[in-house]
# Entry
Amino acid sequence: MPTAVAGPEIERLIQLLARLPGLGPRSARRAALHLIKKRELLMAPLTGALQTAMDKIVICKACGNIDTQNPCTVCTDPRRDPSIIVVVADVADLWALERAHAINSRYHVLGGTLSPLDGVGPQDLTIDALISRVHAEPITEVILALNATVDGQTTAHYITELLQDANVKLTRLAHGVPVGGELDYLDEGTLSAAMKQRTLF
Ligand code: ZN
# Structure
């Protein structure tokens, strides 16, 4: 076991930082040291920002997004098209689509995907709330923006079944060649999906 080089308070800081995604124990030590060296410039404002976020963060009751207001900024934005809902598994996916300026719509965050192996069933996700929303709001299209994985696609099919009798267009993201991608480097699954979903030029 390695001997501690600092007091328990600093070791605790390193341990907590090491739990962040993308940071291992080594990067956590570097981050902790950086914070300590920049106490006034970085650590104090970060402490304040963490506390404020902790106090103010709420989950949007309408869509499941994370924000400091409920309903969230996305749900209350009058410039968005309220007739289109993009269904995503996680808030990270919502943020990714927003970063890409992919669509100017509203969202529904499921909170994960169905995964029988991990014991995640429909009751663990916000699928019921989505179905109610589609029936209650003037929605014309539901876009299933879920991962191109077995769990993602299982979830998409499950939702499609439940919305069969709702009067909405059900669409999903295209699977295929990534922008800037070279055909020779693509896996067979992606190539054959791209060929099946070819579009008119
Ligand atoms: Zn919302």
Remarks:
- The mean pLDDT is 94.
